[in-house]
């Protein structure tokens, strides 16, 4: 499908000033300025992230209350339950906090709990609280969940169970009656960085406990590999503290990971140094698959296991779950596309709603994202779950999906989510009415341009500027993630050498020439654009830069994202 190109610009005065300070390529300086790095000190902090620049955890609202409640628990030998969500963020957070408490407290007095995705649902569960009560537990630390669990935390109090909530999701107007709430996004919290993931908030709690008891930083910095995994998987902004934690955590992943992560790396077949992208596409899916296909408890067991052989056994279970997940989402995506393509009504809509009773409920969110790759519009994928139809919704950039779902609430039993994603449930007899109402709402509110994918272009770059030293500086901009994505460059007036070709029927192997310099590149799923190259006219190309390592020889190559014919030069008026 055609895409919109949005070319960013930078304040040229700031760019010139920064270039005079850093003495690097002006395009790189432009990108840094676009990302808020406009002086030498900011550049130093960006290129050389330091753990010493992390904020004092006691700046977080309620941290003192949380630490005092923990101290009371230690003093009175209370039993503590570490409770977390079933995704990567939740399971890594539980592994961090659980292991730390086991090292500084009595191990027999600490347990962990991950709710079952289908039996208990998202977040704090009544079953989890009842488990705590049955096991004489009087303090629950909830991680990556709890900020909306007002009634459940109130219920726990009637059983004599206190909560310390560590969460990063937006709170509602009423907060749970917990002993302490750690969430930078809650009203009145002056913590300087607001974008921590759930594991990051848990890391702040153990940092504060270490400070309180005079424990060496090595006692909790050893969990940075888990924190980096959570940051990557939860798609939080790669800025500020997240970038510092991810930078150092990634170094640990590549030098001294916990046995569980080491096993996942081995099963993923990665033989080079990992990047955040590898974590997102290789490690995270295997961890998430545990909760999608079975029980996420084994993900925590993987992360806390110190025996390499046993850790590998847990990793193989997750690997098996992920293989099952891939098979399910691939077959369901094919079925869903066939449903859409078999109906002129569905093809022509501005939204997608598809439903089959037998689809696996653990992958409907992934399938929704896959469908958007083919039909770029707000999408809902539904399946049968007991007496109800349940599903996941995904949005396109810039469209408030939650508001559209909210507008259909008369047909729903329950729903929740945010701007870009949502979950919902309804009675089977309401599926058709919901489908039509959702389409009407989307059609009435979405601007046409949001139905065309947009590519953010960071700057123009000629082939002559692409050098090894340029690439080395580019690599120092990692780790990449939201708000610090790999730069996308535009090269104009590039020519096909005649050696470009289609490979494996859907990809293009490019050999392009510009400014007397030739680069090879790969364009995945770009066979449909090959006819533009065959016209032997100049093209404008969007690409990122990476390195190809073949038989020990490293060469720079392009990863082509899109291309179009260069504009024809205008004829001078006579």
Account of the protein in words:
It is a single chain. This protein is an alpha/beta fold and 574 residues long. The chain folds into three domains: 57-319, inorganic pyrophosphatase (n-terminal core), CATH 3.90.1640.30; 342-451, Diaminopimelate Epimerase, Chain A, domain 1, CATH 3.10.310; 455-565, OB fold (Dihydrolipoamide Acetyltransferase, E2P) (Beta Barrel), CATH 2.40.50.460. 42% of the residues lie in helices and 20% in strands. It contains 21 helices and 19 strands. Strands 3-2-4-5-6 form a five-stranded parallel β-sheet, sandwiched between helices. Strands 7-8-9-11-10 form a five-stranded mixed β-sheet, with helices on both faces. It has a five-stranded mixed beta barrel with strand order 14-16-17-19-18. Helix 8 (198-213) runs antiparallel to helix 10 (224-233). The protein is globular.
Lay out the secondary structure:
Elements: E1 4-7, H1 12-22, H2 26-34, H3 40-47, H4 63-75, E2 79-84, H5 88-104, E3 110-113, H6 126-134, E4 137-143, H7 150-158, E5 162-166, E6 180-182, H8 198-213, H9 218-221, H10 224-233, H11 240-255, H12 259-267, H13 276-293, H14 297-304, H15 308-341, H16 344-347, E7 352-355, H17 364-374, E8 379-385, E9 388-394, H18 401-406, E10 414-417, E11 421-426, H19 431-445, E12 454-457, E13 459-460, H20 468-475, E14 489-496, E15 501-503, E16 507-514, E17 517-523, H21 530-534, E18 539-550, E19 553-565
Helix pairs in contact: 1-2, 4-8, 5-8, 5-10, 5-14, 8-10, 10-11, 10-13, 12-15, 13-15, 14-15, 15-17
């Amino acid at each position: 499908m055609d895409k919109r190109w949005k070319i960013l610009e930078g304040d040229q005065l700031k760019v010139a000033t920064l270039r005079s300070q850093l003495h690097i390529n002006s395009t790189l300086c432009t990108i840094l300025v676009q990302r808020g790095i406009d002086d030498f000190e900011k550049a130093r902090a960006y290129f050389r992230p330091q753990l010493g620049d992390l904020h004092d955890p006691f700046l977080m609202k309620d941290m003192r209350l949380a630490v005092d409640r923990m101290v009371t628990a230690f003093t009175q030998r209370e039993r503590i339950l570490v409770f977390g969500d079933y995704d990567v963020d939740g399971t890594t957070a539980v592994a961090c906090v659980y292991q730390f408490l086991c090292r500084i407290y009595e191990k027999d007095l600490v347990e962990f709990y991950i709710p079952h995705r289908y039996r208990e649902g998202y977040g704090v569960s009544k079953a989890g609280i009842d488990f705590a009560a049955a096991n004489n537990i009087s303090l629950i630390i909830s991680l990556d969940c709890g900020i909306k669990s007002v009634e459940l935390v109130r219920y726990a109090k009637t059983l004599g169970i206190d909560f310390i909530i560590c969460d990063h999701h937006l709170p509602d107007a009423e907060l749970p009656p917990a002993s302490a709430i750690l969430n930078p996004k809650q009203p009145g919290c002056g913590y300087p960085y607001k974008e921590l993931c759930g594991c990051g908030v848990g890391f702040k709690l153990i940092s504060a406990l270490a400070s309180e008891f005079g424990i060496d930083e090595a006692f909790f910095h050893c969990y940075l590999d888990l924190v980096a995994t959570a940051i990557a998987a939860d798609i939080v902004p790669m800025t500020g503290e997240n970038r510092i934690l991810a930078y150092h955590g990634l170094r640990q992943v590549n030098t001294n990971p916990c046995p569980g992560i080491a096993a996942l790396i081995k099963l993923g077949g990665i033989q080079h140094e990992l990047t955040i992208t590898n974590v997102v596409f290789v490690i995270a899916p295997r961890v998430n698959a545990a909760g999608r296909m079975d029980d996420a408890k084994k993900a925590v067991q993987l992360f806390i296991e110190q025996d390499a052989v046993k850790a590998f056994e847990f990793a193989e279970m997750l690997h098996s779950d992920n293989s099952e997940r891939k098979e399910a989402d691939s077959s369901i995506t094919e079925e869903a596309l066939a449903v859409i393509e078999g109906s002129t009504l569905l093809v022509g809509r501005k939204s997608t709603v598809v439903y089959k009773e037998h689809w696996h409920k653990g992958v409907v969110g992934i399938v929704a994202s896959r469908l958007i790759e083919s039909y770029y519009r707000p999408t809902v994928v539904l399946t049968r779950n007991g007496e109800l139809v349940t599903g996941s919704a995904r949005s396109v950039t810039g469209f408030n999906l939650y508001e559209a779902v909210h507008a259909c609430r008369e047909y729903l039993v329950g729903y929740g989510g945010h701007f870009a994603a949502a979950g919902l449930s309804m009675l089977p007899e309401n599926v058709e009415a919901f489908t039509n109402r959702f389409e009407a709402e989307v059609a009435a509110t979405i601007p046409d341009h949001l139905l065309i994918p947009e590519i953010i272009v960071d700057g123009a770059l000629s082939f002559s500027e692409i050098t090894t030293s340029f690439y080395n500086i580019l690599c120092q901009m990692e780790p990449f993630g939201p708000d610090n994505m790999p730069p996308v460059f535009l090269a104009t007036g590039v020519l096909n050498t005649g050696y470009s070709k289609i490979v494996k029927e859907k990809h293009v192997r490019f050999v392009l020439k510009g400014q007397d310099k030739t680069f090879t590149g790969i364009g995945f799923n770009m066979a449909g654009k090959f006819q533009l190259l065959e016209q032997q006219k100049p093209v404008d190309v969007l690409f990122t830069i990476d390195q190809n390592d073949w038989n020990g020889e490293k060469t720079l190559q392009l990863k082509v994202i899109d291309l179009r014919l260069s504009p024809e030069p205008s004829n001078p008026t006579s």
